[in-house]
Design goal:
single chain, five-stranded mixed β-sheet, 28 strands
Length: 376
């Protein structure tokens, strides 16, 4: 099922724009390339041309050449027989959709600014559009509902409500701890050399102050917290509030005193930045490879899934996945490829990997692309 959406294009004289090259798509979506801003003559290798004309409209021009006037923008297009309608500051109703459907879209004329367009399902944002003169994306419908396109900026485009059904094979999340780049400092306990009795201490959670343990030389009985019967006399450990907790032994046994020192700056917990969402994208362009039809999953090393992208043959860029809550300030990540249900995934090679690791990385408050390729 094919639907159209668009926003009326605002006139912009900005010369620097982001251009996404759109390669092979499904039969329902056109191939589009941005040619430039007028005035000037433009030629495309695609079938026809779409022009944005003042004040806010798109027109379809048959043929591969066009001479544009001032304030006109020009795109080449194949696979379309008309220009998309123009809307602006609108909520476009795309109708009911079913859970598991894979939706795809291609659009034009989204200026890079703070006016962000998105798709909402029953009023909940499920896809944020990456801005550009040509933009595209794919997402899975998470539950049954009514889908709308929120047009905060002026764009036009094409949308398919259910190109395919999402694969069911997804990695099972685990509780495996994720390594971080900056491990927290660990408090160190030091003991002075002597044949002193061994004591077991239990403290409250938190940074451990450095303790210096001294003892009187003696026959080295073992002191335990629980007083387990045995050949050695039982020692009872008592911690009193204050800087000098004391271990009191039974009569005849040397007394062991533990003195707690004030915490040094190295012992204090580090100041952490505020927790912020991260964003990432899967990109084959640096490696020169292309996606093969299937499901691509970004996960923290250890199994916590962060984002997924269903791609078709020839695609190279997933677009940005935004508002991702990662488990630590810095995490290692992997990109897995699933060709179908109940299949063993392939771990993709990450070209811009973390230092001293083959895995990629993500950090709080940062957008970092994962440049991937197929393993040798």
């Amino acid at each position: 099922m094919k639907k159209l959406f668009i926003l009326a294009a605002l006139i912009s004289l900005t010369a620097s724009v982001f251009v996404m090259s759109v390669s092979a798509r499904t039969d329902d979506l056109p191939i589009v390339e941005f040619l430039g801003d007028g005035p000037g003559s433009f030629q495309t290798t695609l079938d026809d041309i779409i022009v944005k004309v003042p004040p806010f409209d798109f027109v379809y021009v048959i043929g591969q050449t066009y001479t544009a006037s001032t304030n006109e923008r020009v795109w080449g297009v194949s696979g379309a027989n008309q220009a998309p309608p123009a809307e602006w500051h609108q909520t476009v109703d795309l109708g009911p959709v079913q859970a598991g459907c894979i939706s795809n879209y291609v659009g034009i004329d989204d200026d890079i600014d703070d006016r962000i367009n998105s798709f909402e399902l029953n009023g909940q944002t499920i896809e944020t559009v990456t801005q550009g003169m040509v933009f595209s994306g794919s997402f899975v419908i998470p539950f049954d509902g009514n889908l709308t396109f929120i047009a905060n900026d002026s764009v036009g485009g094409w949308f398919t409500a259910c190109d395919d059904v999402a694969l069911t094979a997804t990695p099972r999340p685990t509780d495996t701890a994720t390594p971080t780049f900056t491990p927290s400092p660990t408090a160190t306990e030091t003991n002075t050399p002597s044949p002193s009795p061994t004591a077991t201490e239990t403290g409250t959670p938190g940074p451990s102050p450095t303790a210096t343990e001294t003892g009187t030389p003696g026959p080295s009985p073992t002191a335990t917290e629980t007083g387990t019967p045995g050949p050695s006399p039982t020692a009872t450990e008592t911690n009193t509030p204050g800087p000098s907790p004391t271990i009191v032994n039974t009569p005849g046994i040397p007394t062991v005193t533990t003195t707690a020192l004030p915490p040094t700056p190295e012992d204090l917990p580090p100041t952490r930045p505020p927790r912020e969402d991260a964003c990432t994208r899967i990109n084959f362009e640096v490696s020169g490879d292309e996606a093969v039809r299937g499901l691509y999953v970004v996960q923290e090393t250890g199994g916590r899934q962060l984002a997924s992208w269903y791609a078709l043959d020839g695609w190279q860029d997933s677009g940005w996945f935004k508002d991702i809550d990662i488990s630590h300030q810095n995490v290692y990540v992997q990109v897995l490829y699933y060709p179908g249900p109940d299949t063993t995934p392939t771990v993709l090679t990450i070209l811009n990997h973390a230092p001293d690791s083959a895995d990629g990385w993500m950090s709080w408050g940062m957008c970092h692309a994962l440049e991937v390729g197929w393993p040798d």
